[in-house]
Amino acid sequence: AEMAAARLSGGENRLVSLPLSRIRVIMKSSPEVSSINQDALFLTAKATELFVQYLATYSYKHGRGKEKNALTYTDLSHTAEECETFQFLADILPKKILASKYLKMLEKEKRDGEVRENNDEGEEEEDEDKA
């Protein structure tokens, strides 16, 4: 731990590239967390870094990135949608759609919601008739 702490204090041979202060703030934002052990902070940072590398590599290999020699947002969102391991990211990396398409979707959801509410009222009335 002392070696890790020494390397984390600065210099170019840091063991993690993510800013530990930011990770500490994120960890402390959880109400259950009162104090954060330096080793736990370091391991969380390293695990996060490795996860991001894995996500990026997987998305690059399985996306169209190889054709363009680039990793795109579309590659990442496709991975979140298609790969079971990354499906928990689907809300964070949604597929990009046009604003007009999104507004139509919202309108349809609103209409469907109204139809459902009207149907529910009808069912309650039927139940009362039977009683």
From TrEMBL:
The keyword Chaperone does not apply. Its main location: nucleus. Residues 109-119 have a biased composition (Basic and acidic residues). GO terms for cellular component: CHRAC. The keyword Transferase applies. SUPFAM superfamilies: Histone-fold. Residues 120-131 have a biased composition (Acidic residues). One of its GO terms (biological process) is chromatin remodeling. InterPro entries: CBFA_NFYB_domain, Histone-fold, Transcr_DNA_Rep_Reg. GO terms for molecular function: DNA binding; nucleotidyltransferase activity; protein heterodimerization activity. Residues 109-131 are annotated as: Disordered. It is found in: Nucleus. It comes from the Eukaryota. Keywords: Acetylation, Coiled coil, DNA-binding, Nucleotidyltransferase, Nucleus, Phosphoprotein, Transferase. Residues 17-78 form the Transcription factor CBF/NF-Y/archaeal histone domain. Forms a complex with DNA polymerase epsilon subunit POLE3 and binds naked DNA, which is then incorporated into chromatin, aided by the nucleosome remodeling activity of ISWI/SNF2H and ACF1. Does not enhance nucleosome sliding activity of the ACF-5 ISWI chromatin remodeling complex. Heterodimer with POLE3; binds to DNA. Component of the CHRAC ISWI chromatin remodeling complex at least composed of SMARCA5/SNF2H, BAZ1A/ACF1, CHRAC1 and POLE3; the complex preferentially binds DNA through the CHRAC1-POLE3 heterodimer and possesses ATP-dependent nucleosome-remodeling activity. Within the complex, the heterodimer with POLE3 interacts with SMARCA5/SNF2H; the interaction is direct and enhances nucleosome sliding activity by the SMARCA5/SNF2H and BAZ1A/ACF1 interaction. Within the complex, the heterodimer with POLE3 interacts with BAZ1A/ACF1; the interactions are direct. This is Chromatin accessibility complex protein 1. The gene is Chrac1.
